[in-house]
Specification:
Helix content: 25-40%
Shape: elongated
Low-confidence stretches: 103-107
Largest sheet: 5 strands, mixed
Distance between the termini: 67 Å
Mean pLDDT: 83
Strand content: 25-35%
Radius of gyration: 22 Å
Number of strands: 7
Strand order of the largest sheet: 2-3-4-5-6
Order of helices and strands: EHEHEEEHEEHHH
Structural class: alpha+beta
Number of domains: 1
């Protein structure tokens, strides 16, 4: 098991620092709740930067794969994670002002997070992965392990299915 990495996010961004590595999916407890199984490894890179306005930010890249649960057949569904995002670092006052602007209809180009002198990198990665996952993952039509007889049964239960049978006669 790897030691957890903590960074001072503002210092990390202002100095252009970089951290990268791999994390076992089993080390991300909130992610385990939505997965079919805990196997797999994710690669990550976090790079500190300042945007064009001088606002400190973190560029986060995560790649790998996991196995979600298909909402049709309830079996495993291989899902590729390829995530590249920029997170602007804000203090509480600027986050509050930003929330007021968004409520007023102004959109921001990048997501913002609260700057933290003791930011847990694994928690950050886990949060970004959870936000990127589909709400109801499903196999492609025809690739699902749910049987065709279940689909036929659904069609027969349709209220107009009986009328369609009468029309054929």
């Amino acid at each position: 098991m790897h030691a957890r990495s903590f960074i001072d996010s503002l210092d990390f961004a202002r100095n252009g620092q970089k951290i990268s590595g791999e994390v076992l999916i089993a080390q991300l407890p909130r992610l385990l709740d939505v997965l079919e199984n805990p196997r797999g490894v994710l690669s990550y890179k976090v790079q500190g930067v300042e945007d064009k306005h001088g606002i400190p930010a973190l560029d986060v890249s995560i790649t790998g794969s996991c196995q979600l649960r298909c909402q049709r057949c309830l079996n495993g569904l291989d899902y590729t994670i390829k995530l590249d995002t920029r997170l602007l670092l804000r203090n509480q006052a600027s986050l509050d002002a930003l929330n007021d602007n968004v409520a007023g209809g102004e959109e921001e180009e990048f997501d913002s997070i609260l700057a933290d002198a003791h930011l847990d990198v694994l928690d950050l990665l886990e949060e970004e992965i959870l936000l990127s996952l589909p709400i109801a993952p499903k196999h492609e039509l025809g690739a699902c392990q749910a049987t065709d007889s279940e689909n036929v049964r659904e069609e027969e239960q349709h209220p107009f299915a009986v009328l369609a049978k009468l029309k054929r006669n």
